[in-house]
Amino acid sequence: MRAHRYQVSLIVVAAIGDQVTSTIHDTQAADHHSGISSMRSNNTLAEFLRRRAEFAIPAGVPVLRFDTTDEAVSFAFRTRGPSHLEYLSAGVVQRPDGAQVPYQGQPWDELAGFYVGGDLYVLLAEQAGMRVERTTEHD
Description:
By secondary structure, the chain is an alpha+beta fold. The chain has helices at 45-49, 71-80, 118-128; strands spanning 6-13, 20-26, 36-41, 62-65, 83-84, 92-94, 100-102, 115-116, 131-134. The longest helix is centred in the C-terminal third of the chain and has 11 residues, at 118-128.
């Protein structure tokens, strides 16, 4: 298996239409923050996963499924929960005033207007009842 420069760490499938957003890490970046970006593609999840020739999608990557989660749950999380900000460090929330502080265990619906990194976004999405899957080697 060849090494990839870019590695996926989070996949989010939109509620409507064929759209997948992913968090990508540049494994050759000078530092953690400059090597993180978000990529949006007009693909189904299956089409996106077939792009493994372009970037690494390791087993265990969380897949947040707005498309298959109950519509009321999905809407509540999108409107009353935190937003995802890919470059935030693990365990950190960014308050509406821009200050970054450690996550203190607040429930998802107390974080409207806050930003969280991928680790907390998945944790809080699961807490809200969102469907979260994990990639396997054979997706």
